[in-house]
Amino acid sequence: MGIDKIEAFDYMLQLFEEWRDSHEELKNEPFPKLKAMKLLFLAAAPKEQGGSDLLDIFDNFYAMPYGPVEIDVYNAIQEDKLPSYTVNYKYIERKVDELYKPRNTAVWTGRGYGDLYNRIRDAVNDLKKKNEKLVLLNAFELVEITHRWSSWNRAMDFAEFMKQLSAKMPTDSIRDSSKIFDLK
Q: What sign has the CA pseudo-torsion 57, 62, 66, 67?
């Protein structure tokens, strides 16, 4: 069994909430599912050419009409299977009002994944450094940003050619893509 990407995303959601709550105007607002999926992509992707990323964990991105989607995480959200969150039609909300506590830390550490939480925190912090205001954008503004990534455009072109609504985004394509983190 590999890294539990659903638990990893669950932890990432906590970090997104902390980031959101650092902006008084959004404090404790419900977290839209679409916004969470776009921030996941931007956090997982490398911030610089050849930079580190989380694409070894979040390794199943598909280009879809509203931008890149990590399909395994998307399915867990749709099936309301996040450990610390409940999911309704549009939003993801915390189940309990306490900080996330990883369930299988000993198992993860024993398998050499002890630095996973630090990697996730670093990825979110790197994204904040790239553009502190990303968390203030609405889901459709984030969609607009992800639509400017060449890896999404190439995969959507392929999907359209194949007369499909989505296509796999190869990890190397995401790593080699244009790196866009704002609406300019």
A: positive
Q: How many CB atoms lie within 10 A of CB 132?
A: 12
Instruction: Quick: pLDDT tens for 27-38.
Output: 878 899 999 999
Please name the amino acid found at residue 103: R
Question: What pTM does this model have?
Answer: 0.90
The pair of structure tokens assigned to 63 is 């280009």
CA distance 182 to 95: 31
Determine the distance from the C-alpha atom of residue 46 to the mean position of all C-alpha atoms in its chain, rounded to a whole number.
12
166 class by beta-carbon count within 10 Å (0-12 exposed, 13-18 middle, 19+ buried)? middle
- Cβ count within 10 A of residue 72: 15
pLDDT digits (tens, 9 = 90+) for 6-29: 989 999 999 999 999 999 988 878
Under DSSP, is residue 82 helix (H, G, I), strand (E, B) or coil?
A: coil
CB 70 within 8 A of CB 37: yes
